[in-house]
Amino acid sequence: MKITMKDIAKEARVSIATVSHVINGTKNITEEKHNKIMEIIKKYNYIPNITAKNLRQQTTKTAGVVVSSFPDTFVTEMVYGIEERAREMGYSILLINTNEDRDREEKTINLLHSKMVDGIILSPTAKSIDYLNQFIDNNFPIVLINRYDPKMSNTPRVTGDNYQTGYDATMHLLKHGHKKIGFIYTVPNVSTTNDRIHGYQDALKKLNVPFNTSYLEIGYGTVNGGANAVHSLLGREKDITALFIQNDLMTIGAIQKIKELALSIPKDIAIIGFGDFASSEIIDPPITNIVLPPTTIGRTSFDVLLGRINNHEYMKHIELPPSLIIRKSCGC
Length: 332
Description:
By secondary structure, the chain is α/β, with parallel strands linked by helices. The chain is built from twelve helices and twelve strands. It has helices at residues 5-12, 16-24, 31-44, 50-57, 73-88, 102-114, 133-136, 162-175, 191-206, 223-236, 248-260, 294-310; strands at residues 62-67, 92-97, 119-122, 142-145, 157-160, 181-185, 216-218, 242-245, 270-274, 288-291, 317-320, 323-325. Strand 8 (242-245), helix 11 and strand 9 form a beta-alpha-beta unit. Helix 5 crosses helix 12 (294-310), helix 8 packs parallel to helix 9 (191-206) and helix 10 (223-236) packs across helix 11 (248-260).
């Protein structure tokens, strides 16, 4: 007897739509129902209708791009790189910003999958992205960009070397004689933040400078956030002589607040920013930045996605190195 989705739904006491969602990974189903349906599928060795399956195998020449935030130069140029490469390869892009909302991200992935994009490039909001396994297990192409979950070794990723970014920027400040270095980050518990803090810690350790958690401050990736972070940091830790700031908007806010406090850059406070925004060269003093290549990261991620679309076993983890653009804000 040939079993159908209707038979599976009847035995599992769920709707046919629920069975379909489990098979196609198009909607989150409770773990209990998901496991029950999968048990029945395995029990009868059910194979989905080939015609329906072929719908997924047809290419749409469209890819989804889901980013966790869209406020700064780095993310903008990364997305530009994706779009540029996609256009060269005859693809269209559906771009969605989740604004650091984990639930919105998951709903977005489900939506894009159901709309039959050929694959998705994702910069996730949070470190834990286990929900992606239901798509990856069904051979749906997903590539992680910029941020990643180290436990997700079963999907390709393209990132910058954020550990080295943290290490090199901190070491540069240490070599200028700074030992009290504030670290202003965008959001906690994501790979970019964690890896840069790890690099920051190891650079301090290398020169026997103690690590002080009180020198870390969240800035939320905004101008006001950067200003507020400086206000909190310098109010709490008056001996800080340098700042390492993790995005361009926070750097702008930090500079504004430092000047409001009648402090001089770099005499009173040295600064290294991340991401070389357009006005870095003309600010007084010009801003030293450590940079990763966002356009290259974007272009590379789309090539990796194409590799994944064409071969479900294609697997690459690519990490691109940072470079330091030295100007006067750190005392050089």
